[in-house]
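Worked Example 4.2. Consider the chain below.
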Amino acid sequence: MSTPVIQAIYHKIDELYNWRDVTPISESLTKKDKDNKLQTESQNIINEINKLLETSETTTKDKAFIQYLMGKTYNILPAYSSNSELALSKSIKLDPTLVDSWLQLGESYWKKADVIAAKNCFSGALDQDPKNVVALRNMSMVLRMLPTENIEQKKSNVEESVKLAREAVSLSPKDGVSWYILGNAYLASFFLPETPVYTTIRGETFETSKTGKDVKNALAAYYQAENSPVARNNPDLYFNRAVLHKYQEEFQEAVNGFRKAIVLEGGDWPAADIHIKQINDFVYLMESALTRKGSLSPKKFNQIVESVSSVHPSPLVSISRTASPLSSLVTGVNAGLFVTGCVIALVSPEGWTPISFALVDSSGRVIGLSIYNLIPGTVGIGTPISIPDPFVKILQFNLNGKVFVYTSIQADASQLEIGGKMGDQVSVQTTLEVSNSEDILEEQEKSSPQSGQNTGSNSSGSKGRGKHKKGK
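Applying the procedure from the previous section yields the following structure tokens:
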């Protein structure tokens, strides 16, 4: 930037983006107030740029940079702006090496829902700077949204998405937005159909395990993202993380996350409210089922307890393992053991994942049981279930001042014997509702404004929320 006027405008835009990204919605600053300020301040800057264009004699590179500033200013608001697209297209035509113009134009197309054009822009940025953190993470985001013809192509895109997001994080470990994008990439990987693991016992092949590492990786990335002043004000970060906590039955963390998302969204997010209500209802139902023994009559309860002794698990469950009563289990994985019990209560509200029950063993001991990827309707009152290497968890949740504490087993349907059926006979894909928006937020890596390069686009896309499915 060759003139003090251009430099001054550049810094005004930079300051306005920074204010937008680090200033959260609160009681004293509503979402409407914030949008109004952005609208007013950005229009003032646009007026200055128009005046500059009318009065100044500039070089081609300066003209390109001024058009970039114009496009970036129009791009500060969530909605697509044709004026932004026009200015940024002019900028690139004047100077195709201007990385920031490629990044901003890519965001403009993203808001326009033109994913292919956005991808081409981020590719253009990477052609100029293969190690550009913003371009890497934005390409990671776009790859997961590209239309595909088959699941293999989708898997390939998601794998490349994870790879690019990891590269962005490695280049800028303190960049919270890159961590957020990496978390979403792992989340997308989690929703893909998994490659099952098989075990052959006595000539018969069984599906035996799946991996939950993508959930753990996504959660870890989201917590890293929260350390940054930009990403920590993104409500989708807390919503998606809360969904995963809920999925793992970490209910206190889930409710805290949904509440935080609601605040940052301006106090109104019905989907988050529904999740909180579901958690409250579930904990109450589970506590009631365990303490009241499924509300069964003593005669019915005793009949089910007696029936447990007649259940004989298949070799997949019992081979190389020792039968154990529920009372002998410890917190964590009980390797080398298996437990058998019968269901005395169906606990899960409609649409709840995982599907949960109250289970009783032959001694009359009752415990919670949550089964992931289970075909709905597979289990009823009295259904026998055998669980190898049971994973036991103590769940604690504060509901309106009352603390609920109970013990539960978590298991994947593919690892269990349920009513005499094994593995994929009782498994099905799981549906989780998450926020599928990704704001193209930027934590700028400050460079000299004189260069006009690599300053980061510091931009934010519009929201769109929906459901993703987790395959077997």
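Residues 31-55 form the longest helix (25 residues). Residues 196-210, 441-472 have pLDDT under 50 and may be disordered. Compare this with Example 4.1 before moving on.
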